[in-house]
Structure prediction request, 415 residues.
Amino acid sequence: MTDIEVGPATDPERFLRTDTVVWFQEMLAAPAETQLLGLPADQRFAAEVDGADETAYPGIYGVYPLELAVPGDRLVPCAGLTWVGVHPDHRRRGVLTAMLRHHFEQVRDTPGTHVSALHASEPAIYGRYGYGLASVELTVTLSRGTTLTAPGLEEQAGTVTTRLATVTDADVARRMYDCHRAVVDAGAVVGAPEFYERVCLQFPEWLRDKEPWRILFARRDGRDAGFAMFRRTPKWDDARPAGTVEVHFLVGEPAVRLALLRRLVDLDLIGSVRLRSGSADDLVVAWAGGPRATAGVETYDGLWVRVVDLPAAFAARTWSAPCDVVVEVADRHAPWNDGTWRIRADADGAAVAERTVADADLRLPVEALGSAYLGGGNLAALARAGLAQEARPGAAAELWRAMRTDVPPAGSMMF
Prediction:
């Protein structure tokens, strides 16, 4: 087998050349460090293979320093896996496996960080490495003028004002970061301040004939309370305006989101508004009157979560019910998790996972725990589907009741 070494990617130009070959995208004219804004230099990694072409790395990956909102209204550090690619000349030679093993070791050895997360370009890949589908996201399309009904939120929504900005305006990135960190639901991820500077980048090659990203800020009591990031695309049907609005993400508590959406569905020259990254039980669908009252609802896989340090990750979140289950976990890519654990949660929401020699009540792959980590992946359903095996009837449901949340995990911004 080819010897593969994974370590820091010290050449940003070489890093970008690999990325461009993997994703076959247009080369940008901006300097390398501008293109890599938000991805810290010490969080860029590359695989080296003897005899490889030195103009590009055989493989690359990066990590955005994120915070993940976990059950219990907590923000915990999370390694946001990104920029992953294997050069076409080095596919199927173990490069990705070597990089992900390196990543898991890095996460394990980083104080305070116990989980990794990603958005999968090809979902079939990452389940093999222990990532579980932790949230399902909706994309909801609303027609212009859609009535959004929420009697219990009218008074609060009435105190919200909205003001339009553009991503190139001063302080917009910092305002987005402050808003996002202040209001998050379990399942959402928050980037570092530099990540929002990256979101606000407007490369000419990306714009072409597109509108720059606009930010609609919501304000209450003289302070920012949320925002929507959106872009309009003009269109005319038989001389009638039929433009579209693409909403990249929507941030704020429910009354704030309601006020923002009412402004968005009332924009001039627009026929429809497409909202990305909604949760599986999104409020927008309820406000509109159900799925058939919208112009369309599409379902996608959302955030994939990888439990890297099992006992520490379980202690970091709040649990919904008591449980005492012995679980045999299969984890060949992070072998320190592999084996049998006794997982106990108490009535106060705290949990502990400890090694045990007791017989297992439940056997499952580590990706099943990743899927349930945010309260969304139903372990009892996985057992029914044959993707987890019960030695004690009811063990999967007991563990699931302790891990689940009252509402599905929120949609996550892309990274």
Observations:
- Residues 137-301 form a domain with the Aminopeptidase fold (CATH 3.40.630.30).
- The chain has a mean pLDDT of 96.
- The chain has three domains: 4-113, 137-301, 310-403.
